[in-house]
Write a structure and sequence with these properties.
alpha+beta, about 600 residues, 2 domains, Immunoglobulin-like, 11-stranded mixed sheet, 26 strands
Length: about 600
């Protein structure tokens, strides 16, 4: 009996040691990148990275949570998600003025997911997943049905570890977007609950909703993927990246001097780092300090020179743990002594613009211009998704550069189907150096049922952004993290020669033939008026009973009382009329007497 107890005790201790060892391998880092932009704006990018030492292929390991949020982990394990990428953005990122962001995202909400190979019915699992994610983040992702969902073939490849041959097929990937989704505080609150320290300590104490949503641009993002761990990828882990990007217009304050501070922009200062984080740092890009003539306070812990892809940058690095030791606070501020002078902004190597062409409500067109300022040709992937009511004429698709037609290498086109499937096409072609490439096609607007129009039908219908993917040979204006890590500090040691870039164009607003929804109201008012007048008269004539009264018939008590008062009224009126006649007669006699007397007096005078 004692030996059995000893064996049972040893097993419990071994299990506890195993669990503790796996838990202690979890890691959490919080980072903030501050970058002054050439247009006078300031870009803040918060990055929270959690590394969970658990394999996604083993659901039993998704039972012990420490730093990884359990609510999200349950969703991933229940629906067998390999990778999940969600963004919620309010505003438009201006590439030609601001360069490239760390995490690119279109306006509205965007979700793309890779499912595990063991999923049998991907469409049904996707339908269940979007409902779960919609409830978790308080978004309208439950509207991503078959009319708004596609399976990209080349544009959205797995970003993490994947089985061999897994990414060759697009069967396990689903993509959907809601360009008209509005992002507000109800989306920020569930997002902050995924952080290990929530908004109590660390960088998350700067998340003041009133300040954040007063900015020109803000974006929330959630990315999960499996990554390699150990030497030679001996085991796998789950990486969760939570990012918040916000752009403030700091050029409109200080009468051109542009002074600002974290306290002024976010309404708070940093008092301590998150105790669960292994690293808590702030990186301030001071590369343009000599041009714009500003001073950063307080003094940083170190100044770091970074050379990446031929682009040299300088960063002030602040360790929040050291800066807030001893009860101090960290309030990074910028001071200027001279007014800023703005010159022509150097655009990034590649950016795009997209807009609607044509006139009227029958036919139209879409045109996308891709600008390439590099001195070499590049291969790009262009993906466009259009709703079913924009009936695309694929034969009208034209790709041209300086008047010369360009033939794409690969074409993946899936025609749309009314009320069940959107139009989707992906193009792989060569982007000429130092030129502008134009992509254009035509479409026909469909008629909708009157129940399919939204409440603001005359506002128009939002159309997804186009997605452009490529590999850049330079890191100019490039701030994204490398492919192997989501930590900002890892980009400062990146020695890659090619850099993956994905950008989104503007979302479109398309007007469709819209009926006059006020006409039913007018018809109802007119019909009711006519019915009330005509029906009322006809109803009275057809339903009222007419009878002949006999004057000799004896009346009841009530009739006698009425006739008495009527007789009294009649006699009084007759008496008053007789009196009036007598008065009138007497007055007439007096007038005749006066007249006769005057005639007699005249005759007497003549006789005399």
């Amino acid at each position: 009996m004692d030996s059995c107890k000893m064996i049972f005790f040893v097993l419990i201790v071994c299990c506890c040691i195993d669990i503790c060892s796996s838990v202690t391998n979890d890691d959490f880092k919080e980072e903030l990148l501050i970058k002054p932009l050439p247009s006078g704006h300031t870009y803040f990018h918060f990055q929270f990275t959690t590394l969970w030492n658990s394999s996604i292929e083993n659901p039993q390991e998704f039972n012990h949570y420490r730093l990884f949020p359990k609510s999200l982990g349950d969703v991933l394990s229940t629906y067998k998600v390999q990778e999940l990428h969600l963004s919620q953005t309010q505003g438009l990122w201006h590439y030609e003025k601001w360069g490239y962001p760390v995490e690119d995202a279109p306006s509205g909400a965007e979700l793309w997911v890779w499912f595990q190979p063991t999923v049998a019915n991907v469409d049904q699992t996707w339908s269940n997943l979007v409902n779960a994610v919609s409830g978790l983040f308080c978004t309208s992702l439950n509207f991503l049905d078959s009319k708004l969902t596609i399976s990209p073939r080349w544009s959205f490849r797995p970003r993490g570890l994947a089985p061999e041959g897994y990414s060759a097929s697009s069967h396990f990937v689903r993509y959907g977007a809601l360009p008209g989704e509005v992002v507000c505080t109800e989306n920020l609150t569930p997002w902050t609950k995924l952080l290990p320290c929530h908004t109590k300590v660390g960088l998350s104490t700067l998340f003041n909703a009133i300040k954040l949503y007063d900015a020109d641009y803000h974006s929330l993002a959630v990315h999960t993927r499996p990554v390699c761990q150990g030497i030679g990828c001996s085991h796998t882990a789950m990486e969760l990246s939570l990012s918040l990007a916000v752009v403030f217009d700091t050029s409109t304050s200080g009468y051109g001097l542009q002074p600002w501070s974290i306290k002024k922009l976010f309404g708070n200062v940093l008092t301590t780092q998150c105790p669960l984080s292994s690293s808590s740092k702030v990186f301030f890009d001071i590369t343009s300090q000599n041009e714009t003539r500003f001073t950063v306070l307080p003094q940083s812990d170190m100044v770091r020179q970074v050379m990446r892809g031929g682009d040299e940058r300088t960063y002030n690095v602040y360790d929040i743990g050291k800066q807030t030791a001893g009860g101090r606070v960290l309030n990074i501020a910028v001071k200027t002594t001279q007014k800023s002078v703005y010159t022509d902004i150097s655009p990034p190597p590649v950016y795009a613009q997209r807009y609607i062409t044509g006139y009227g409500l029958e036919r139209g067109g879409v045109t996308c211009l891709i600008y390439n300022s590099l001195s070499e040709d590049m291969s790009v992937i262009y993906m466009d998704t259009l709703p079913w009511y924009m009936r695309v004429f694929f034969k009208s698709l034209v790709i041209e550069n300086a008047g010369t037609a360009i033939k794409p290498f690969k074409i993946h086109y899936i025609p749309g189907k009314d009320r069940s499937r959107p139009y989707q096409f992906e193009l792989v072609f060569r982007l000429k150096a130092n030129s502008i490439t134009k992509i254009s096609f035509e479409f026909q607007r469909a008629f909708l049922k009157w129940t399919e129009y939204p409440p603001d039908a005359n506002h128009g219908f939002a159309v997804n952004s186009a997605v452009i993917s490529m590999m850049l040979p330079t890191a100019k204006n490039y701030t994204a993290t490398p492919q192997y890590s989501a930590i900002l500090e890892s980009s400062m040691t990146d020695k890659s020669e090619r850099f993956f870039l994905r950008i989104h164009t503007e979302s479109l607003l398309v007007s469709l033939p819209t009926p006059d929804f006020s006409m039913p109201y007018n018809v109802i008012c007119l019909a009711c008026t006519v019915v009330a007048i005509a029906f009322g008269s006809i109803h009275n004539l057809t339903t009222r009973k007419f009878g002949v009264l006999d004057p000799t018939k004896k009346k009841g008590l009530l009739g006698r009382i009425k006739s008495f008062f009527r007789r009294g009224d009649k006699s009084s009126s007759e008496d008053s009329s007789v009196e009036d006649k007598e008065k009138t007669h007497m007055k007439q006699e007096d007038e005749d007497k006066v007249h006769n007397k005057s005639l007699q007096d005249i005759k007497k005078e003549k006789s005399s």
